[in-house]
Every structure is written in C-alpha cells, then in structure tokens.
C-alpha cells in the first residue's frame, strides 16, 4: 500500500518537470503575462509579462499522479482523496477565472470581489458539507464536527458551525498562500515543506490507526482518521508536483503560479488539515503563511487607526526587499522560517502521540 505514496510523488515530480516548460511556451504564445504593481520594489518591474497561471501545471500533475498511482497499484480512490482533490481543483478554478480576467481583459483587479468570494463560498461549502458524509465501517466520515489539534478534542460544534469553521480555514489559508506568492519560488518552496510534513503525518496515522487497534502496542494512542494513507498519497503527489514546478518557478522565475496556484494550494492544505484532524496544527505547520497574513493585517490596522505604517510595505517579504535584502536572500531565509515551523509542528504531533502512549 505504501507504494502509492512513492509512485504519486515521483509521477507528480516528473509531470511538472516535463509539463511546465510546455505550459510556459503555450502561455507565452498567447501573451498571458503577469501584471506587476507599480508601487512595488523596482526590481519587480522586469518581471512584467512573465507567463502566469502556472498553477495549472501542478494542479493537473497532482490529479494525474493520484489516479495513476491508483491504477498502477490496483487500489481504489477514497472519498477523502476525491474530496481534497475536488477542493483543490475548485479553488484553482476560481483563481484561474481571476487570472484570466486580469490578463485577457487587461483589468488589474480580475474577478470582482463579490464574484470571487461567491466562487470560494460555493467550493468551500460543497467541500464542508460532503466531508460529513460517506461513513466507513467504523462510522467515521472524512471530516469531523469536533475541533482538532493533533487529534479531535472537545465537544462537537455541530454541522452548521463546522461548515462555517471550514470556510474560515479555507479562506484564511488560501489568502495566506496568495499573499506569500510575491517572490520567485517563495510560496512554492514553502508548500513543498508543508506537504512533505503531511505525507509523514498521513503515514503515521495509517500505521497507528484505530482500525488496527488489535495490533497496536497502545490502542489509546491511535488515530480515528477515515483515510489517512490516501491523504499521504495526495500530499506526496503535491510535494513532487510543487518540487518540479519550483525548478521553473525559482529565481529568475520562468513562470508564476498566479491565483490559480495559490488559491488551489491554500485550499488543498486546509483540506488535508481538516480531514487529518490537525486543524489547529496547520497554523503552526504553515506558519510562514500565517506570519505573512498577519503582517498585512497589522499594516492595514495600524494605518487605519493611527495613520502610520508598521512596515515599509506589506506583505512582509516586500518590507525586507525595501530594506535592501536581495530577493533570493528573502526567499531562502523565509524558507528556513517555514522549515522551523514544520519541525515544530511535527514535534508537537509526535509529542502528542508519545504523551498518550
């Protein structure tokens, strides 16, 4: 069964390594280039016209890697796997429409705010409602109405509040990845680290699943997750696909992921967190996305309340660029921050299991 994880990761990597340059040529031929803010760092002006909507590459590669790994190994897709992929594709479609309008209509704002929000709400609500369906033999559904950190805890919040909570997470993480996607390779490299961690978490939860309680040394430390191995297969496919895309997206980027990619990555990361019962842990695992989002909140809040800016420019990565850091220096140091967040998150995940044991 573990072969699925290896196959999905390798296929995802191969498809984006080979497929992304083909996408670059197609987008360049059609003139689908990136719009650059006039008030941003001057060095970014040279990026104007770089092909965008590159998220198409790793979205398609991830979906293909997942289903091909199933065909190769002979295992059937699960409801959890299809739901997470559906969330990724749905959010990616909303981002694609936003990118397409920006480029083709030559309109810097893309989708109107209400239309974009409506699209995200439709995708998010559909995911949340369906996540509470499809019980397995043990009575587990892909999602749970209990809040979770490394496992479920506390009282059930009920299906309505669960949908609201899931929507908040999806919107917050999607916007977080979107804000992070401002420098060559920054969001892609950070995502590789998080998806690598979720591959490990899925494998661990599968090995310590309550479904195998009779073979575990301590059944009290088991995990009630419906399809943990399939979540690991998707996380592995994403890690490979993003790594292959990073080859072309790193500085100087030949292609940008656009909202197509950033909304999809934020959505699928949230989906993995919800279905693996690590909803609050993802705030630590994706700490860089949270940090950058908070920099925007602080900047906007401070300016509205006091008329002063805390940072030279928000999001945070542009503040350091304006302080004189090179783009590559900012990216690498932010990757290190993300790596630390992942290590802390995995440490807390393991500590929770060890404490119960």
TrEMBL record:
Name of the gene encoding the protein in the UniProt record: mraY
Main subcellular location of this protein, as a coarse class: membrane
Location of the protein in the cell: Cell membrane; Membrane
Topology in membrane: Multi-pass membrane protein
Class in the EC hierarchy, top level: transferase
Source organism of the structure: Streptomyces coacervatus
Entry-linked Pfam families: Glycos_transf_4, MraY_sig1
EC number of this enzyme: 2.7.8.13
Catalytic activity, as annotated: UDP-N-acetyl-alpha-D-muramoyl-L-alanyl-gamma-D-glutamyl-meso-2,6-diaminopimeloyl-D-alanyl-D-alanine + di-trans,octa-cis-undecaprenyl phosphate = di-trans,octa-cis-undecaprenyl diphospho-N-acetyl-alpha-D-muramoyl-L-alanyl-D-glutamyl-meso-2,6-diaminopimeloyl-D-alanyl-D-alanine + UMP
Function field: Catalyzes the initial step of the lipid cycle reactions in the biosynthesis of the cell wall peptidoglycan: transfers peptidoglycan precursor phospho-MurNAc-pentapeptide from UDP-MurNAc-pentapeptide onto the lipid carrier undecaprenyl phosphate, yielding undecaprenyl-pyrophosphoryl-MurNAc-pentapeptide, known as lipid I.
Pathway: Cell wall biogenesis; peptidoglycan biosynthesis
Coiled-coil region(s): none
Name of the protein in its database record: Phospho-N-acetylmuramoyl-pentapeptide-transferase
UniProt-listed CDD domains: GT_MraY
Keywords: Cell cycle, Cell division, Cell membrane, Cell shape, Cell wall biogenesis/degradation, Magnesium, Membrane, Metal-binding, Peptidoglycan synthesis, Transferase, Transmembrane, Transmembrane helix
Protein family according to the UniProt entry: Belongs to the glycosyltransferase 4 family. MraY subfamily.
Transmembrane segments: 6-28, 49-68, 74-97, 117-134, 154-173, 185-206, 231-248, 255-275, 281-307, 328-353
Swiss-Prot/TrEMBL cofactor(s): Mg(2+)
């Amino acid at each position: 069964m573990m072969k699925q994880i290896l196959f999905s990761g390798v296929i995802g990597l191969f498809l984006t390594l080979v497929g992304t340059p083909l996408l670059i040529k197609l987008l360049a031929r059609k003139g689908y280039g990136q719009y650059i803010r006039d008030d941003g760092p001057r060095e970014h002006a040279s990026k104007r016209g770089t092909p965008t909507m590159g998220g198409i590459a790793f979205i398609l590669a991830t979906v293909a890697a997942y289903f091909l790994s199933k065909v190769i190994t002979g295992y059937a897709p699960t409801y959890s796997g299809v739901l997470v992929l559906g969330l990724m594709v749905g959010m990616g479609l909303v981002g694609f429409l936003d990118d397409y309008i920006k480029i083709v209509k030559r309109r810097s704002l893309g989708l109107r705010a209400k239309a974009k929000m409506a699209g995200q709400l439709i995708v998010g609500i559909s995911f949340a409602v369906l996540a509470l369906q499809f019980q397995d033999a043990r009575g587990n559904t892909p999602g749970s109405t209990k809040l979770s950190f490394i496992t479920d805890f506390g009282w059930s919040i009920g299906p309505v509040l669960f949908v609201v909570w899931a929507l908040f997470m999806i919107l917050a993480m999607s916007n977080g990845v979107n804000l992070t996607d401002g420098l060559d390779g920054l969001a892609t490299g950070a995502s590789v680290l998080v998806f690598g961690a979720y591959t490990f978490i899925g494998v661990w939860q599968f090995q310590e699943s309550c479904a195998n309680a009779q073979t575990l040394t301590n059944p009290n430390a088991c995990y009630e997750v419906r399809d943990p191995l399939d979540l690991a297969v998707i996380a592995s496919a994403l890690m490979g696909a993003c790594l292959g895309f990073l080859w072309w997206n790193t500085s100087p980027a030949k292609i940008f992921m656009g909202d197509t990619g950033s909304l999809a990555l934020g959505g699928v990361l949230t989906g993995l967190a919800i279905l693996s019962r690590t909803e609050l842990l993802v705030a630590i695992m994706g700490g860089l996305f949270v940090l950058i989002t908070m920099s925007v909140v602080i900047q906007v809040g401070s300016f509205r309340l006091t008329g002063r800016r805390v940072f030279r420019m928000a999001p945070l990565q542009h503040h350091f660029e304006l302080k004189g850091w090179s783009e590559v220096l900012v990216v690498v140091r932010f990757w290190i921050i993300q790596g630390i967040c992942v290590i802390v998150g995995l440490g807390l995940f393991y500590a929770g299991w060890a404490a119960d044991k």
